[in-house]
Write a structure and sequence with these properties.
This protein has 1382 residues and is an alpha+beta fold. The chain is 24% helix and 31% strand.
């Protein structure tokens, strides 16, 4: 058939369509700048093969994943960005790339690199198209690409991506079957492969797919010259052709070859509302969407060619965003995307906004008159009565699509009583009953309102005017519930015949609350009453009320007492909606099954319910609607929930009470504050197609990683994360996040996500829908698989998205590193083996040396022990030397002899120092050195020590200089340690100073670091041989001896300076040395000292005197000699014959002396001869002195004999050990014989005085004698001793303990136990009481009393007296005199 005949045939069948008003079922969703779109002027839309939506705008290209936009724009200087921001078209191109057209040309976008290229030449030359100035690129439904050229000489190119072949179609004037023009403005291919092209000449042509010959032409009309756009072609599913000119007033051409229809749609009544067409597409229902400028969208039904208009309503955000539509695009899911001129994107699919919504629009007079809906009722015609919350009664004629409103009028008694309607109900007589708020009950028959109101005092009227619920029972009675007046029953004649009210008495057979939310009669003809306090059941057969309440102890009780509504399902189960969920009552068990938000409801508060089918219940909540699917197959009910929100078309999330209805056709109505929804549950389908999961972003340290971007010196993403299957990371890139999305545009906010890092996460982790990101920190090196899955409320989709991730270990954990470690370990083992062999050899040598050293050490210990023992033995002959010399010195008057004897005495003391030094070294090794400080003039003490070496100075002709900046300095110091220090320093100075040299001792007092403390600086300098600097640090080490000249012999042991340093350190001081070889040395000692005011005397209490001097009282001895002419007997026990002879020889003049050479013989002689006193050495064979003393004190026959112990062993611990055995006194060798003799005489004198006192007491009071206990005898002895020595200022606790033959510690315990006072306090108390007696006598002055009671200082005496009697002595004396006068 010729083309002209076909055209005439089509024109003869021209058909005219009609138009109808806009259909409100089309509810759009919107996207704009507020959602992240770069600009609201949308020029083109495309969905790529992976599921991303691409939107070209006036200002940039946008990629949308359903949640957020990623924008691409031109970046100056970046050749991989767009060449312009104004996007004109988006087209799929060869090699899975996108061709983006801007005002300055085409850009090729590579999804793998996310980069743009303006280099078309490389690709175009590859496919043998040598003119890159193209008009458009088109991809047909068979995958072929068509290049439309700007150049009129180039024609049309077809590129087959499979065969890599390119075909060029050109116009030939001589051949009418060729295209009519080389300037092709658009191209499309139908399902049969026919190629449809339009040209700038206004001709539409069809080409054969095999021969590329034109077999059909339509002349659509030539366009004005200079017009920027040409004809565009759209071929629908039925292969019908639609042609239009964008942005030009030309309408749209419709050509259906099958129906033989050619129609030109233009603006006019019953047709288009504008001629300016911008785009055309077809939806899945076959409707044609015609996008217009300022005319919205014109929907053409192809069956009858009727037109509907989809327009923008300013007060309806679910309407079309704007009436100026720039482009249309239908994606593979059937969503229609509409780009607008200034309002972004509007998109539609029947399953996106699933629920038809009716509300009031100011811009639409035909819309719902009032939006706040409370209740519904359906009449016999299927039309709906709507009760509103202030908008009266509305009648919706569904067939006509109109609303009629009934309002209360104060001037019309036949009007509605109140505009607030709470409940509607149509009874069996088809009468409409209207429950109002404060208007009572109305009955409407279609023309007349009859009013039922409360009349106070009239029982035949309803109980109040606030009607809350209405229903009808099986007998035709009307059940009317109120807000606060209980339940009313109206009979068939509609007279009030019964009223049930709660009067506060729970025991009555009645309601438990007057607030009635709902009332129904179930299939058993029992009436269920929903109240504010539980659920009441009226059993009709015996007219008995049952009550159901919540019980915390019973999980199968009613879930909450605040109930809202009630429903009986087809299985006879009673569903109750409450403020805490749904309770389902089963008559068979009498128990409730409870559901709440934890089970899947969108909210705990459930408002209303409607049953759709046996296994489907719909419920309204303050958080949307819920479709509850019930599985009744098992013994227990199982439930599945599908929830919906306002994004799916609900009038809002919140719904009103009693505002639900199920129509006879199975539709559901739910009302709320923004209108109501009407839907058929069977038509509410979930999205059938599972969404495509895709990775959308990869972040390292909270920064998105770009494709090809270097992070830490390396590229992490060689291509887009959405196209990656594997990801390689370094160990220091292991803080990362992966973002993902399901490319679902059907309410993406309802998609649920879970992810899991296999190899790290044990279970699936729920992801936030708003973030959709999984973050990981510090993953260990290794191989992982990241998995993501998506799901809905109903199930998890089976398809998962995975990404294999390899985190490379650091270089020290690589295979090469471990190989190196193995080699290193082997090498180390070999080295250790070699070293071990060497070590064993060396150890053998060391062990040998160590054994030798140990042998030498043991030898040294034996030497030291030997020297110590020898030192003990030295003390005895020293005593025999020093004691006679001391005595002879006192008796000789010749100066020369006396000088020689003094020399002997000095050298004996020097020898004693050497002996003590050995003993001190032994103590220093065992850390037994202790300070024994006493008061004294330290300057004078050092001076005397220094001049003790004058004989050495004379022998060696050494000049000695002593210089002190202070004449005297009284302080408390250890005399013995100070003597040793000076002895060692001076001994070394003289020893290493050659003849003719000099030795100096210089003393200076300097200020110390602490407040009130000074330091005594002692310098001992000599002009001796000196020492090298490298030896100075060693001279204080034990046994160190410097190399000496051959002419000098070092006779020292090397321990003197070591002991000296320890003594100085013990006193808190320090010692330093300066020395030069052949010039001499200077030792500097700094000792902390505190000046004591005055001399060495002290007025301190008795207990502060540590070792008081023992005075010998010659008068007492003389009296004793006069009283007793017979000598007293002393037993001398000493193993050294010479010392024993010496002591005996000196004691023989005053005592009878008995000798014993050891302790055993001494014990025998003590028993045999009962001596008055025993003097015993400690260190003896057979029985030592300690054991002898213990034996003597333990035996009643000898316990009264005082014992004086003699020993060469020094130290307080040795003294305490001796005194604790019961010894009376203790002397250290060498000792002064006069002191020994005085101690013996004093002890014997005291013993004699006690004996006389005791004898006197017996003679005076023989009748009162009683046997005292040991403690009483002891205490009497103490009192006698204190009384005897009360005038002795030097009488101390030590002396007291010695006199009673007990240790100081034993004395302390006994006195404290008996008196509650310490020994010192007790002695002082006795002194104070004696002072009080003396003051009361009045014969002595205060000064005399002070000295009588043993105080040296009157000031201290007054202070102690005041503390004892709370009065000074003078006042006490005056008070005593006044009392005596009275």
């Amino acid at each position: 058939m010729k083309p002209t005949r076909v055209l005439l045939f089509i024109l003869l069948h021209f058909v005219v369509g009609t138009a109808v008003a806009q259909n409100s079922q089309f509810r759009f969703s919107r996207l704009g700048i507020g959602n992240g779109l770069s600009h609201n002027q949308v020029n083109c839309i495309y969905k790529d093969k992976r599921g991303f939506m691409w939107i070209g705008t006036l200002s940039g290209l946008n990629k949308y994943d359903g949640y957020r936009f990623k924008t691409f724009k031109h970046i100056t200087g970046d050749t991989t960005s767009l060449n312009d921001d104004y996007i004109m078209s988006i087209t799929p191109g060869p090699e899975d790339k996108l061709w983006i057209e801007t005002r300055t040309g085409f850009n090729i976008y590579d999804p793998a690199t996310e980069k743009f290229s303006q280099n078309l030449k490389t690709f175009m030359y590859k496919i043998k198209v040598y003119d890159t100035y193209i008009l458009a690129l088109k991809k047909d439904r068979f995958g072929n690409f068509w290049f439309l050229q700007h150049n009129k000489s180039q024609g049309l190119f077809k590129y087959d991506q499979i065969t890599k072949q390119t075909i060029n179609l050109l116009h030939n004037d001589a051949d009418t079957t060729t295209i009519s023009s080389n300037l092709v403005t658009d191209l499309s291919v139908d399902s049969k492969g026919n190629i449809w092209v339009s040209s700038g000449l206004g001709i539409l042509e069809r080409l054969d797919p095999k021969t590329y010959k034109v077999n059909l032409r339509f002349h659509l009309g030539q366009l004005p010259p200079g017009l920027s756009s040409g004809y565009k072609i759209f071929i629908d599913k039925q292969d019908d052709v639609w042609a239009f000119v964008p942005s030009f007033s030309k309408g749209v051409y419709y050509i259906s070859l099958d129906k033989h229809v050619f129609k030109h749609f233009l603006k006019g009544p019953g047709c288009l509302n504008t001629d300016v067409i911008s785009d055309v597409t077809q939806d899945n229902q076959g409707r044609m969407w015609i996008a217009t400028d300022h005319g919205g969208i014109n929907l053409i039904n192809k069956k009858d060619l009727k037109t509907e208009y989809l327009l923008n309503r300013e007060d309806d955000d679910k309407s079309l965003g704007q009436n100026s539509i720039t482009c249309l695009y239908k994606d593979d899911a059937g969503i229609i995307w509409c780009g607008s001129y200034k309002r972004g994107i509007s998109y539609y699919h029947q399953n996106i906004i699933k629920f038809a919504s009716y509300t009031h629009h100011l811009s639409d007079k035909g819309s719902l008159p009032f939006s706040d809906v409370n209740t519904f009722a359906e009449d016999a015609a299927g039309n709906i009565w709507i009760g509103t919350n202030g908008g009266g009664l509305i009648y919706w004629d569904r067939k006509a699509g109109t609303f009629k409103q009934y309002l209360h009028s104060t001037t019309n008694k036949n009007s509605l009583t109140n505009n607030v309607i709470v409940k509607l109900f149509i009874d069996h007589e088809r009468m409409l009953w209207i429950g109002t708020y404060y208007g009572g009950l109305d009955r409407f028959d279609g023309s007349t309102f009859r009013h039922y109101k409360h009349t106070e005092g009239d029982a035949n009227t309803i109980s109040e005017d606030r009607v809350n619920s209405i229903n009808e029972d099986s007998e035709g009675n009307l059940l009317v519930g109120t807000l606060s007046a209980g339940l009313n029953v109206l009979d068939k004649k509609r007279n009030v015949v019964a009223a049930y009210r709660f009067d506060g008495d729970m025991s009555k057979n009645s309601l438990h609350s007057n607030y009635i939310s709902a009332v129904i009669e179930d299939s058993r003809r029992n009436v269920w009453i929903v109240t504010a306090y539980g659920l009441d059941l009226l059993v009709k057969k015996d007219h008995r009320f049952l009550h159901f309440l919540h019980d915390d102890t019973k999980p199968n009780s009613l879930i909450n007492n605040n109930t809202n509504n009630i429903l009986e399902d087809t299985d006879g189960l009673i569903w109750i909606s409450t403020r805490e969920g749904i309770s389902i009552f089963d008559y068979r068990t009498g128990d409730f099954t409870n559901l709440n938000k934890r089970d899947g409801l969108p909210d705990n508060t459930v408002i209303d319910m409607q049953q759709v089918s046996r296994n489907n219940i719909w419920a309204s909540t303050p958080n949307g609607l819920s479709s509850i699917f019930v599985d009744r197959s098992g013994s227990k009910l199982k439930f599945r929930f599908v929830n919906y929100n306002e994004a799916e078309g609900l009038q809002g999330r919140e719904y009103s009470e009693n505002s639900s209805l199920k129509t006879r056709d199975g539709e559901l109505l739910f009302g709320g504050g923004n209108g109501f929804n009407v839907f058929k549950p069977s038509g509410i389908n979930s999205t059938l197609k599972e969404p495509e999961l895709i990775f959308t972003d990869f972040q390292v340290f909270n920064k998105s990683a770009g494709v090809g971007e270097k992070i830490n010196g390396r590229v992490l993403l060689p291509k887009s994360i959405s196209m990656l299957n594997e990801l390689e990371l370094n160990y220091d890139d292991n803080v990362f996040a992966i973002e993902f999305a399901a490319l679902n545009y059907f309410n993406p906010g309802k998609v649920k996500y879970q992810y899991r890092m296999q190899g790290f996460d044990k279970d699936w982790i729920n992801a936030d829908n708003n973030i959709r990101r999984a973050g990981y920190t510090n993953l260990d090196p290794g191989y992982y698989t990241f998995r993501v899955r998506a799901g809905s409320n109903e199930r998890w989709y089976r398809r998962e998205l995975t990404l294999n991730i390899h985190i490379a270990p650091p270089f020290w954990k690589t295979t090469g590193a471990y190989a190196f470690y193995v080699l290193l370990a082997i090498g180390t083992l070999l080295y250790i083996r070699q070293r071990g062999i060497r070590k064993l050899r060396a150890q053998f040598a060391i062990e040998k040396e160590r054994g030798e050293a140990q042998r030498m050490h043991e030898l040294d210990l034996m030497k030291i022990k030997f020297l110590t023992n020898v030192s003990h033995e030295f003390r005895t002959p020293l005593s025999l030397i020093m004691a006679p010399v001391d005595k002879v010195i006192q008796q000789v008057d010749e100066p020369e002899v006396k000088r020689q004897l003094l020399t002997v005495n000095r050298n004996a003391k020097r020898l004693l120092n050497l002996v003590n030094q050995l003993l001190d070294f032994r103590k220093m090794e065992h850390q037994q050195l202790k300070l024994q400080k006493t008061n004294g003039d330290i300057i004078s003490f050092i001076k005397d020590l220094s001049f003790a070496f004058t004989d050495v100075a004379e022998q060696k002709h050494i000049r000695f200089i002593f210089d002190s900046e202070v004449a005297a300095y009284h302080t408390c110091f250890d005399h013995d340690k100070m003597e040793r220090i000076m002895f060692n320093l001076l001994s070394n100075a003289y020893k290493f100073t050659l003849e003719g040299g000099s030795v100096s001792v210089m003393l200076t007092v300097v200020e110390g670091d602490d407040k009130g403390q000074q330091r005594l600086e002692i310098k001992v300098a000599d002009t001796g041989i000196g020492m090298p600097k490298d030896k100075l640090a060693l001279i204080f080490d034990p046994f160190f001896q410097n190399d000496l000249p051959d002419s000098m012999l070092n006779q020292g042991s090397g321990i003197g300076l070591s002991i000296t340093k320890e003594f100085i350190k013990l006193q808190g001081g320090e010692i330093t040395v300066e020395s030069e070889p052949d010039k001499g040395s200077c030792f500097t000692v700094l000792l902390p000292v505190i000046r004591i005011a005055g001399g060495s005397g002290s007025d301190a209490p008795v207990h502060e005197s540590y070792e008081p001097a023992v005075e010998v009282v010659p008068a007492l001895l003389e009296q004793k000699d006069k009283r007793d002419s017979k000598k007293q007997t002393v037993l001398l026990v000493e193993d050294n014959d010479e010392l024993r002879f010496y002591i005996k020889d000196n004691l023989s003049s005053a005592f009878n002396v008995i000798e014993a050479e050891n302790g055993k013989k001494g014990w025998q002689k003590a028993l045999a001869q009962h001596p008055n006193l025993i003097v015993s050495d400690i260190t003896m064979p057979e029985m030592n002195g300690i054991d002898l003393c213990v034996k003597i004190k333990a035996d009643k026959r000898t316990s009264h004999i005082p014992v004086i112990l003699l020993t060469a062993m020094t130290g307080e611990d040795q003294q305490l050990k001796g005194l604790e055995t019961g010894a009376t006194d203790y002397l250290t060798k060498p000792f002064n014989f006069d002191i020994l003799q005085s101690k013996i005489k004093n002890i014997l004198s005291q013993q004699e005085s006690m004996r006389k006192t005791y004898t006197k007491q017996v003679e005076v009071n023989p009748s009162e004698m009683v046997t005292d206990s040991p403690d009483e005898a002891f205490f009497k002895k103490v009192l006698v001793l204190i009384d005897k020595n009360i005038s002795n200022p030097n009488f101390s606790v030590e002396e007291l303990s010695s006199e009673v033959f007990v240790s100081r510690y034993t004395l302390y315990k006994k006195i404290l136990a008996m008196t509650g006072k310490t020994p010192n306090e007790f002695v002082r108390s006795m002194r104070m009481k004696r002072a009080a007696q003396l003051l009361e006598s009045g014969h002595l002055t205060i000064s005399q009393v002070c000295h009588k009671v043993g105080f040296k200082s009157q000031k201290y005496f007054v202070k102690m007296f005041k503390e004892e009697f709370n009065s000074i002595p003078s006042k006490y004396h005056d008070a005593a005199e006044e009392a005596e006068q009275q």
